[in-house]
Design a protein that fits this description.
Layout lengths: L1 H13 L3 E6 L2 E6 L5 E4 L9 E9 L4 E8 L16 E12 L3 E8 L1 H4 L9 E9 L4 E3 L20 E2 L6 E2 L8 H6 L7 H8 L1
Parallel strand pairs: 6-8, 7-8
Antiparallel strand pairs: 1-2, 3-4, 3-7, 4-5, 5-6, 8-9, 10-11
């Protein structure tokens, strides 16, 4: 009897990290723990799923507390040219959802780690901004800008580095096409860099 109780206790402890989620009208079992990133099904069938971070679990009531991540177009500022297609923005928006709203797990990386990926998967995202959903603004925004257009890095846009000043530029901002810039063996962004290189 004691052994049966032990096994039951061990099983219940383990299942605190297990969810049964309904996906495509089928029941799948997958592991989900505090700190994981997940995709949450929207209440509006016309709206796509959103990304969230699991903050706490309530297995008994099959509920989960999440921190929501916004897509740039969901913020008041909207999507800008420097936003990547897989960019999400962390927020101070916390919510309680049923575990059955979880569609699956995903990964949210820093921009630096995201840019080292050789192949970006459907479950890969990156985050570099924080959004205050009460004030409806980005907070603690301090980010490097590049090129003549003074735009933050967009990992989806090709950039070329000047061999003189070592700054980065969009080929289009220098009157070039990406395919032509990729063929260059040497790139100098300005006459000054060309003159300095000739010395």
């Amino acid at each position: 009897m004691m052994w049966n109780f032990f096994y039951i206790y061990t099983f219940l402890s383990y299942t605190k990290n297990l969810f049964i989620a309904r996906l495509n009208d089928a029941v799948d079992l997958f592991v989900c723990t505090v700190g994981d990133y997940v995709r949450i099904r929207s209440h509006d069938p016309k709206t796509s799923a959103y990304v969230a971070r699991v903050e706490s679990l309530d297995v008994e009531h099959q509920m989960v507390r999440i921190q929501r991540y916004y897509f740039p177009e969901e913020t008041k500022q909207g999507r800008k040219r420097f936003h990547g297609t897989k960019e999400v923005i962390s927020s101070n928006h916390y919510d309680i959802q049923s575990i059955h709203a979880i569609q699956g797990k995903c990964v949210v990386r820093s921009l630096e780690n995201y840019m080292t990926l050789k192949c970006v998967g459907v479950d890969d995202y990156f985050c570099r901004f924080e959004y205050d959903c009460v004030e409806k603004c980005l907070v603690n925004v301090s980010i490097a800008v590049y090129c003549d257009c003074q735009m933050p890095c967009n990992p989806d846009l090709f950039m070329v580095q000047c061999d003189g000043c070592e700054c980065w530029f969009h080929p289009s901002c220098k009157g070039m096409k990406d395919k032509d810039a990729k063929r260059l063996t040497k790139f100098l962004c300005s006459k000054k860099c060309s003159d300095d290189d000739a010395k």
